[in-house]
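Lab notebook, bench 4. The sequencing result for the construct came back, and we need a structural model before the next group meeting so we can plan mutations. Quick request posted to the team channel:

Model the 3D structure of this chain.
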Amino acid sequence: MSVDIELIKKLPLFAAASQSLLLDVAAHSVLKTIPEGQQIAYEGMSSEWFFVVLSGDVRVYKMNDSGKEVTLFNIHENQSCILTIFSILGQKQYPAFASTQSELHALMIPSVRFKQWVDEHSVLRDHIFQSLSARLTDILDTFDQVIFQRMDSRIARFILDKCENNGDTVNITHEQISHELGTNRVVISRILETFATEGSISLSRACITLNNKEMLQLK
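Done. Here's the predicted structure in token form:
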């Protein structure tokens, strides 16, 4: 059964696509639901599928031999993974790890088909170049934070960024934050306790509540 063409037309990647391309995508793509907490890509794998997130959140990160992680970027609704694109187009192994942060609904396209369409359609290439610019900014921003910013500033910004999408409450453990920011859980806990003592946040089990946005912005 083919995917609804109206759904495909709403995706930024295919917004300027011709009717013939849309019909081709509808005929060769599938819809897939993946539970929260699933590893969907790992370093060194072959990218056999290209995907666009319809709903949900995917975390893309690097991990060293000791298991220390640092987030490169997240993939949200209507977005795709630029690393998957490069892996497919360059016929290279995937250079990072990716896991679902919430239940994921995605449009899945076989990599062979996707590479063919990119070769044949300039509208797809144009969108890829635009996506590359945005992702490079994200990755450079991550490097800037890791190298130049104090950990308390990074944690404050992380909480503020999460609250933009989730309101004033973020359901996350100290361990998860340590993976996101590439540091020790004990360091995360110590700084969060300091924030809580100052009154900028409140802490409960696997939950952070933002009390004073302005205080965190000054970190």
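The longest strand covers residues 49-55.
Will bring this to the meeting.
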